[in-house]
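Q: Could you fold this chain for me?
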Amino acid sequence: MSKKRAIRRFVFLSIIVAIGIFLSVASFDIPFTNYRYNGFANAISLGLDLSGGLSVVYDTETPAGTDMNNAIDATITRLQAVLYSEGYSEATVTRQGSGRIRIEVPDADDTDEIFSFLENPQTLYMTEERASSTVTPKVWIDGSQVTNVYVSYNNENSQYGVVVNFNDEGKKAFSELTTKVSSKSEDKYIYVYLGSVSGEPWGTLTCNEAITGGSTFISGEGLNSYDSAKEYAFNIMSGTFNVKLKLFENSVISATLGRDALLYGIIAGAVALLLVMGIMWWRYGDFGLLADFALVIYLILMLFFLQAIPFVQLTLPGIAGIILSLGMAVDGNVIIFERIKEEYASGRKMHLAVKGGFKKAFWPIFDSNITTIITSVILYILGTAAIKGFAITLLLGIVLSMFTTLVVTRFLVKSYLPINSTKPEKASLYREADVVEIVEEEETEKETQPAEIVVDGGKQHE
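A: Sure. Below is the predicted structure, expressed as structure tokens.
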């Protein structure tokens, strides 16, 4: 590669990196659209400890004869649907241990508003007859047959209401129930009970026709506002949980505390990065600057993937994971440059020392990173929410550090050699004066060809 081509390569790469930095931190309105670009850093989903919010842990109790694992998984799915329908799209519902459910809602501070319907969850029942002291009505629908409940608005009659969706079993049962009730000459009612089929019904639904589509829209005088419809939907949904929930732990983290934690985490990371970059430059000269350039690329890629991967939330332990992976990226560059220095000090030319240094450093870097990746995966599978945040950023950071160390740094160093191949001291490469430069086999070893015999005027020449 010529020197001019190498310089053009660095100029082009510098422009790409500058664009990456701009896209990482800049915010601007996109011309001719109603959208605003917020940059990679601003688009990262923040965890509870950085954005503030509330965390609730519930103990679970399953009915006798019920598969606990399936019941808890079904309850988690329904809780996620409830929170999403309420606009808490970043809320997370996870299993903690064998029998607890943890709910985390960023940017929220009122547990009563969100979780009041969970305090005393009761099973939902739908019957054709009204219960009395002498009548125990047949249950046609129970909570296990309901998949989702949410507030909706009917534009035709300008009414709020509640949409109830059923699974296949519930769809069939509800179709049979509505067919039977709608065919009556009078008392076309479906009675809704919560908790038990006794006493006064929680609600009464008028049914004038058979409903076979697997869902129904419930409206009436008691649902004349969004808030009343939401409360109605929450009460129905609470009766669909497969387990009973009992409050175990409740904590609120203020948004101010979260912002302070994020600020201090960013400051710690920035100080650590600047110190490391300065030390690399001081210790390895031009090679250190190339390593710093690779670290900037690493940070751009990290910010991009943190906001691009849907299930990743940045937490305070997650910031620690990023800083640790950054340290491992630097460690990989240190191993490479030390190997290059050893190769050069032994007498090899600069470009051959670089080749030998990368070759000898590959397996130590690969092995150490693979063991850390395995540890990260185990932590993510077995750890709690805070540990998972650390594990996922550490795993992502290690993968990116391997890429920047073994690919980006190698590319940068090889592109640098045509620019400076005669002044190794600029890359902090030195050897003793009495060391004889090694003539590499690959440069001198050639297969010995048989001498060509030429016949010229009766004489032979070799």
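A (continued): Residues 255-308 form the longest helix (54 residues).
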